[in-house]
């Protein structure tokens, strides 16, 4: 299929798909085959303005929609997502490269947030203090803030958009979404289903584009809050620019996640967990385990870990039994391959080289197989940079406290894990580790939506995380009301010029 013959991805404005008038397009490419699936437009300034204006106009009525009516839309929406799970996963695999089971997992983790949004009636509650002074009550109400925007990455094109717009809309806001230009098609299908579920026209709008559109979102005076997930470089830019424009901003960014292995850990369970967390989704997860810290005698497990990695099947995401699919783009392939070469040059031991795997039927795919380095030190590039590929760095240390010091010295704080059978060790780790999300015998400790995503330090900018309880605060303004009602027969007292309420 040629680029000119490929279908076009639409914008979504005023409740309907709209063909862009732009002259700037990007191909959406199947990373396993290099087939051009579609062309995505980079929205014009006028189209961005139209999306924001539509959201602003719709906010006037949407913010007054009863909370139960909003909740029922998301009850319907979760049903539609479940009914279309196979279709959504197939679209996702074609444009992003994940295996079909992993693609379904991507959709499902977003679906959990939709289910949470359906319970907004219990989440958006204020507080009341009765009779704080003579006949005076004080209470708070959580009101929507207006037009909000989301900028999402390529690696979770279903889950992360579903982290954003359902909670923003359920709390009474309207939304402008900019999905990744690399794989926008599954996001667009989710937006269509949201409107089928009953989201009114203008409440959810979608624009596509690159840096110009991102900057327009950061600068637009009618956008009150911006949620971002992606790289540290772009996230830092978004946070600084949007904050300077007076917006609320939350940015979930890069990571370097460590898993500490104590010698008492269950060996087989730990090896399986490390291999899955390091190489699943071809390592393209901000919560992937990219560093295994082996403590003491656990350093002897390296051959077993390499053997486990060798058992994983590298192939197209639609093939049965595939464990590791392709990287999202040719550029990603070049970057990961270059970092592997850099690791060799800087003195790490390449225990397993996943470059240039033979993948029958997919000779044009962006494949890198599981790759394992041992003898990695903190000064090496492969340790300092987020590789975002199926590459596991192994660091050996003598003591548990040395492992904790290593992790705490790293600037990132997205996630970490400990593998042990010792409750005392687990408690010590939870108390002393300076990382926002901690797993105990859980390699990727992404919380369920009852809680919030709580990455920290260099992995996060902004005080409040996406989804969960924190995001209700992010998408609402707390208004405190102090009121007194007088009995009609009550005789007024003297003028009170003090600050006291009596």
UniProtKB/TrEMBL annotation:
SUPFAM superfamilies per UniProt: ALDH-like (SSF53720)
Q: What is its EC number?
A: 1.2.1.27
**Gene3D superfamilies xrefs:** Aldehyde Dehydrogenase, Chain A, domain 1, Aldehyde Dehydrogenase, Chain A, domain 2
Question: Which Pfam families would you find in this protein's record?
Answer: Aldedh
Q: Which UniProt keywords apply?
A: NAD, Oxidoreductase
Indicate the segments forming the Aldehyde dehydrogenase domain, all copies: 20-481
**Family membership noted in the UniProt record:** Belongs to the aldehyde dehydrogenase family.
Q: Which NCBIfam families match?
A: MMSDH (TIGR01722)
PANTHER family tied to this protein? MALONATE-SEMIALDEHYDE DEHYDROGENASE, METHYLMALONATE-SEMIALDEHYDE DEHYDROGENASE [ACYLATING], MITOCHONDRIAL
Protein name per UniProt: methylmalonate-semialdehyde dehydrogenase (CoA acylating)
Naturally occurring in which organism (per UniProt): Pseudomonas triclosanedens
Phylogenetic classification of the source organism:
Bacteria, Pseudomonadati, Pseudomonadota, Gammaproteobacteria, Pseudomonadales
């Amino acid at each position: 299929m040629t680029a000119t013959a490929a279908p076009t991805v639409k914008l979504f404005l005023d409740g309907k798909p709209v063909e862009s008038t732009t002259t700037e397009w990007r191909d959406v490419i199947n990373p396993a085959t290099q087939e051009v699936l579609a062309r995505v437009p980079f929205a014009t300034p006028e189209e961005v303005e139209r999306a924001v204006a539509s959201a602003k106009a719709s906010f006037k009525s949407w913010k007054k929609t009863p909370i139960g009516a909003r909740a029922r839309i998301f009850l319907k929406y979760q049903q539609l997502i479940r009914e279309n799970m196979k279709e959504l996963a197939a679209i996702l695999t074609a444009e992003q490269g994940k295996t079909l089971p992993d693609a379904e997992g991507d959709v499902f983790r977003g679906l959990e947030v939709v289910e949470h949004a359906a319970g907004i009636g219990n989440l958006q509650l204020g507080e009341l203090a009765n009779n704080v002074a003579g006949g005076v009550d004080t209470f708070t109400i959580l009101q929507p803030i207006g037009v909000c925007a989301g900028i999402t990455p390529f690696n979770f094109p279903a889950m992360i958009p579903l982290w954003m717009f359902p909670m923003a809309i359920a709390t009474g806001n309207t939304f402008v979404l900019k999905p990744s230009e690399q794989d926008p098609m599954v996001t667009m299908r989710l937006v269509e289903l949201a409107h089928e579920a009953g989201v009114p026209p203008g409440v959810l709008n979608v624009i596509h584009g690159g840096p110009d559109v991102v900057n327009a979102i950061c600068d637009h005076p009618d956008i009150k809050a911006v949620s971002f997930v992606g790289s540290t470089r772009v996230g830092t830019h978004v946070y600084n620019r949007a904050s300077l424009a007076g917006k609320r901003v939350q940015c979930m960014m890069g990571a370097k996640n460590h898993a500490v292995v104590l010698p008492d850990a269950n060996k087989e369970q730990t090896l399986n967990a490390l291999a899955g967390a390091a190489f699943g989704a071809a390592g393209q997860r901000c919560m992937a385990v990219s560093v295994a810290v082996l403590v003491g005698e656990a350093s002897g497990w390296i051959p077993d870990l390499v053997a486990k990695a060798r058992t994983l099947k590298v192939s197209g995401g639609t093939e049965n039994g595939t464990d590791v699919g392709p990287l999202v783009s040719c550029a990603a392939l070049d970057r990961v391959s270059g970092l592997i070469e850099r690791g060799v040059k800087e003195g790490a031991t390449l225990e397993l080289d996943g470059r240039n795997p033979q993948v029958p039927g997919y000779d044009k795919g962006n494949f890198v197989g599981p790759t394992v380095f041992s003898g990695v030190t903190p000064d090496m590039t492969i340790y300092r940079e987020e590789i975002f590929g199926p590459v596991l760095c192994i660091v050996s240390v003598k003591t548990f406290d040395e492992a904790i010091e290593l992790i705490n010295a790293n600037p990132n704080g997205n996630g970490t894990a400990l593998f042990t059978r010792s409750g005392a060790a687990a408690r010590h780790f939870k108390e002393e580790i300076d990382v926002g999300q901690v797993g105990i015998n859980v390699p990727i400790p992404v919380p369920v939506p009852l809680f919030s995503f709580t990455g920290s330090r260099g992995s996060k900018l902004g005080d409040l995380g996406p989804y969960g309880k924190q995001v209700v605060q992010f998408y609402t303004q707390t208004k405190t009301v102090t009121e007194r009602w007088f009995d009609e027969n009550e005789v007024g007292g003297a003028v009170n010029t003090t600050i006291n309420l009596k």
